[in-house]
Protein backbone atom coordinates (compact mmCIF):
# COMPACT_ATOMS: atom_id res chain seq x y z
CA UNK A 1 0.00 0.00 0.00
CA UNK A 2 1.21 3.46 -0.75
CA UNK A 3 1.37 6.29 1.73
CA UNK A 4 -1.54 7.98 -0.03
CA UNK A 5 -3.84 5.04 0.60
CA UNK A 6 -3.02 4.96 4.31
CA UNK A 7 -3.74 8.65 4.88
CA UNK A 8 -7.47 9.37 5.13
CA UNK A 9 -8.64 12.23 2.97
CA UNK A 10 -9.68 15.33 4.85
CA UNK A 11 -13.37 16.06 4.46
CA UNK A 12 -14.17 19.19 2.52
CA UNK A 13 -15.62 21.96 4.68
CA UNK A 14 -19.40 21.80 4.48
CA UNK A 15 -21.36 24.95 3.87
CA UNK A 16 -24.22 25.35 6.31
CA UNK A 17 -27.51 26.66 4.98
CA UNK A 18 -28.63 30.18 5.80
CA UNK A 19 -31.41 29.00 8.13
CA UNK A 20 -28.96 26.82 10.05
CA UNK A 21 -26.60 29.77 10.43
CA UNK A 22 -29.41 32.04 11.62
CA UNK A 23 -31.11 29.62 13.99
CA UNK A 24 -28.15 28.02 15.71
CA UNK A 25 -29.15 26.53 19.09
CA UNK A 26 -26.84 28.92 20.94
CA UNK A 27 -28.56 31.94 19.32
CA UNK A 28 -32.17 30.99 20.07
CA UNK A 29 -32.00 32.47 23.58
CA UNK A 30 -30.69 35.74 22.12
CA UNK A 31 -33.68 36.00 19.75
CA UNK A 32 -36.10 35.00 22.49
CA UNK A 33 -34.85 37.78 24.77
CA UNK A 34 -35.33 40.37 22.03
CA UNK A 35 -38.84 39.05 21.31
CA UNK A 36 -39.78 39.13 25.00
CA UNK A 37 -38.41 42.68 25.23
CA UNK A 38 -40.62 43.72 22.29
CA UNK A 39 -43.65 42.25 23.99
CA UNK A 40 -42.77 43.96 27.28
CA UNK A 41 -42.25 47.36 25.69
CA UNK A 42 -45.54 47.09 23.77
CA UNK A 43 -47.39 45.92 26.88
CA UNK A 44 -45.95 48.73 28.99
CA UNK A 45 -46.92 51.27 26.35
CA UNK A 46 -50.48 49.93 26.25
CA UNK A 47 -51.01 49.43 30.00
CA UNK A 48 -48.19 50.48 32.31
CA UNK A 49 -49.94 49.49 35.52
CA UNK A 50 -50.77 45.88 34.67
CA UNK A 51 -47.45 45.33 32.87
CA UNK A 52 -45.70 45.03 36.25
CA UNK A 53 -46.33 41.30 36.44
CA UNK A 54 -44.77 40.87 32.99
CA UNK A 55 -41.49 42.53 33.96
CA UNK A 56 -41.36 40.59 37.23
CA UNK A 57 -41.79 37.29 35.38
CA UNK A 58 -39.32 38.34 32.65
CA UNK A 59 -36.42 38.63 35.12
CA UNK A 60 -36.26 34.92 36.07
CA UNK A 61 -36.85 33.99 32.41
CA UNK A 62 -33.78 36.05 31.43
CA UNK A 63 -31.83 34.30 34.18
CA UNK A 64 -32.91 30.88 32.92
CA UNK A 65 -31.95 31.80 29.34
CA UNK A 66 -28.50 32.87 30.58
CA UNK A 67 -28.04 29.54 32.35
CA UNK A 68 -29.17 27.51 29.32
CA UNK A 69 -27.00 29.41 26.82
CA UNK A 70 -23.90 29.10 29.00
CA UNK A 71 -24.40 25.48 30.09
CA UNK A 72 -22.35 24.02 27.22
CA UNK A 73 -19.59 26.64 27.47
CA UNK A 74 -18.38 25.72 30.95
CA UNK A 75 -16.48 22.74 32.28
CA UNK A 76 -18.76 19.69 32.59
CA UNK A 77 -18.22 19.40 36.33
CA UNK A 78 -20.78 19.70 39.09
CA UNK A 79 -18.79 22.51 40.74
CA UNK A 80 -18.60 24.65 37.58
CA UNK A 81 -22.29 24.17 36.80
CA UNK A 82 -23.36 24.86 40.38
CA UNK A 83 -21.25 28.03 40.30
CA UNK A 84 -22.91 29.14 37.06
CA UNK A 85 -26.42 28.53 38.45
CA UNK A 86 -25.57 30.20 41.77
CA UNK A 87 -24.14 33.31 40.12
CA UNK A 88 -27.12 33.68 37.82
CA UNK A 89 -29.57 33.25 40.71
CA UNK A 90 -27.75 35.93 42.71
CA UNK A 91 -27.48 38.25 39.70
CA UNK A 92 -31.11 38.07 38.58
CA UNK A 93 -32.47 37.52 42.11
CA UNK A 94 -31.00 40.86 43.23
CA UNK A 95 -32.72 42.55 40.29
CA UNK A 96 -36.03 40.85 41.12
CA UNK A 97 -35.78 42.04 44.72
CA UNK A 98 -35.04 45.59 43.56
CA UNK A 99 -38.03 45.47 41.21
CA UNK A 100 -40.31 44.34 44.03
CA UNK A 101 -39.05 47.14 46.29
CA UNK A 102 -39.62 49.78 43.59
CA UNK A 103 -43.18 48.71 42.94
CA UNK A 104 -44.02 48.26 46.63
CA UNK A 105 -42.71 51.76 47.32
CA UNK A 106 -44.64 53.20 44.37
CA UNK A 107 -47.92 51.46 45.25
CA UNK A 108 -47.75 52.26 48.97
CA UNK A 109 -47.29 55.97 48.33
CA UNK A 110 -43.71 56.17 49.63
CA UNK A 111 -42.62 57.58 46.30
CA UNK A 112 -45.47 59.90 45.33
CA UNK A 113 -43.50 61.35 42.42
CA UNK A 114 -43.28 57.91 40.73
CA UNK A 115 -46.30 56.91 38.64
CA UNK A 116 -46.83 53.54 36.92
CA UNK A 117 -45.12 54.56 33.68
CA UNK A 118 -42.08 55.94 35.52
CA UNK A 119 -41.86 52.82 37.69
CA UNK A 120 -41.94 50.66 34.53
CA UNK A 121 -39.25 52.86 32.99
CA UNK A 122 -37.08 52.45 36.09
CA UNK A 123 -37.55 48.69 35.98
CA UNK A 124 -36.64 48.58 32.28
CA UNK A 125 -33.44 50.47 33.04
CA UNK A 126 -32.58 48.02 35.81
CA UNK A 127 -33.24 45.04 33.52
CA UNK A 128 -31.08 46.77 30.89
CA UNK A 129 -28.18 47.19 33.31
CA UNK A 130 -28.42 43.61 34.56
CA UNK A 131 -28.56 42.25 31.01
CA UNK A 132 -25.57 44.34 29.98
CA UNK A 133 -23.53 43.14 32.99
CA UNK A 134 -24.49 39.54 32.18
CA UNK A 135 -23.23 40.21 28.66
CA UNK A 136 -19.90 41.44 29.98
CA UNK A 137 -19.39 38.47 32.27
CA UNK A 138 -21.05 35.62 30.37
CA UNK A 139 -21.99 36.20 26.71
CA UNK A 140 -21.36 39.32 24.63
CA UNK A 141 -24.62 38.83 22.69
CA UNK A 142 -26.54 39.86 25.81
CA UNK A 143 -25.01 43.32 25.40
CA UNK A 144 -27.01 43.65 22.16
CA UNK A 145 -30.20 42.77 24.06
CA UNK A 146 -29.29 45.36 26.71
CA UNK A 147 -28.72 48.06 24.08
CA UNK A 148 -32.11 47.27 22.59
CA UNK A 149 -33.79 47.37 26.01
CA UNK A 150 -32.13 50.67 26.92
CA UNK A 151 -33.13 52.26 23.64
CA UNK A 152 -36.69 51.04 24.19
CA UNK A 153 -36.81 52.50 27.69
CA UNK A 154 -35.53 55.89 26.54
CA UNK A 155 -37.83 56.03 23.52
CA UNK A 156 -40.78 54.99 25.72
CA UNK A 157 -40.32 58.17 27.72
CA UNK A 158 -39.55 60.45 24.79
CA UNK A 159 -42.01 59.21 22.18
CA UNK A 160 -45.61 58.14 22.65
CA UNK A 161 -45.88 55.71 19.73
CA UNK A 162 -42.80 53.61 20.38
CA UNK A 163 -43.75 50.19 19.04
CA UNK A 164 -42.74 50.68 15.35
CA UNK A 165 -39.38 52.14 16.40
CA UNK A 166 -38.74 49.19 18.73
CA UNK A 167 -39.57 46.73 15.96
CA UNK A 168 -37.20 48.46 13.50
CA UNK A 169 -34.44 48.70 16.12
CA UNK A 170 -34.77 45.01 16.98
CA UNK A 171 -34.77 43.99 13.33
CA UNK A 172 -31.73 46.21 12.77
CA UNK A 173 -29.81 44.54 15.62
CA UNK A 174 -30.69 41.08 14.29
CA UNK A 175 -29.68 41.98 10.72
CA UNK A 176 -26.34 43.41 11.87
CA UNK A 177 -25.66 40.30 13.94
CA UNK A 178 -26.62 37.94 11.09
CA UNK A 179 -24.47 39.77 8.54
CA UNK A 180 -21.53 39.74 10.94
CA UNK A 181 -22.01 35.99 11.61
CA UNK A 182 -22.28 35.23 7.89
CA UNK A 183 -19.14 37.22 7.04
CA UNK A 184 -17.23 35.66 9.92
CA UNK A 185 -18.24 32.10 8.88
CA UNK A 186 -17.18 32.74 5.27
CA UNK A 187 -13.87 34.20 6.42
CA UNK A 188 -13.27 31.14 8.62
CA UNK A 189 -14.17 28.75 5.77
CA UNK A 190 -11.80 30.56 3.36
CA UNK A 191 -9.05 30.55 5.94
CA UNK A 192 -9.41 26.79 6.50
CA UNK A 193 -9.58 26.08 2.77
CA UNK A 194 -6.47 28.15 1.96
CA UNK A 195 -3.29 26.09 1.54
CA UNK A 196 -0.70 26.66 4.25
CA UNK A 197 2.02 29.09 3.25
CA UNK A 198 5.54 27.69 2.89
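^ C-alpha coordinates above, recovered residues below v
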Amino acid sequence: MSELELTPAEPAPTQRGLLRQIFRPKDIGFYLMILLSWIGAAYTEADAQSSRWYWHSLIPIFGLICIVTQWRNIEPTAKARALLVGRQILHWGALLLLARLVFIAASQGFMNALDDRQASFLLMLNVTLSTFLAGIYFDWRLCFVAIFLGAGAIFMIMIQNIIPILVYAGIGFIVVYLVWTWLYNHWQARRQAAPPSA
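The radius of gyration is 22 Å.
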